[in-house]
Amino acid sequence: MRSMMLVSLAACMALGACGKGGESVSMTNASMDQVAKVQAAKLQPGQWEMRMEQVSSETTGGSGTLPAMPKMPPSTTKVCLTEAQVNDPKAVFGGAPQMQKNCVYDSFTMRGGKIDAKLHCDMGNIKVEGTNSGTFTETAFTSESHSTVSGLPGGMTTKSHMKMDARRLGECQPGDLKAGDTKAPPQG
Known about the structure:
- The chain has one domain (about 1-180).
- It has five helices and nine strands.
- It has helices at about 1-15, 30-35, 85, 90-95, 95-100; strands spanning about 25-30, 45-60, 75-80, 105-110, 115-125, 125-135, 140-150, 155-170, 175-180.
- Strand 5 and strand 6 form a beta hairpin.
- The longest helix is centred in the N-terminal third of the chain and has 14 residues, at about 1-15.
- The chain is globular.
């Protein structure tokens, strides 16, 4: 769940969805890199609190012998978004270059403090289709996404519906998990 939150934050940053409400962008058939370049304004660096909720998840296909995955409870975490990450949102992706290389936004619109995006990814046998909509400012955002991943082992397909909201709390604190990290912050 924690890594999903970090990927969502990275996606928001790379989408350019975190601009000022007055900015307006509309693109079709655009790469992640092209969309990231239109980011006119940025999230404020600092400590962010993110809450993610899995609304639904469904797996179909395969042998039929797999038990249904339990619904994950809502989860909240805090991360530190650095100035360097604000200035280079692709850096937050770290280990996800496949997304940058294999995903295309069929449509991407950002205006009036709202975002609406539709994307697909082609990673050989695995196909991903997703939508994302939400609201944003420099210090808060909400996001609702739907995704379908097909071509998984055994012919399985997964569908998920996630909600996320985040808000800036203030300056980063010593020991904060950095955006893009996949390990827990040190205890102490």
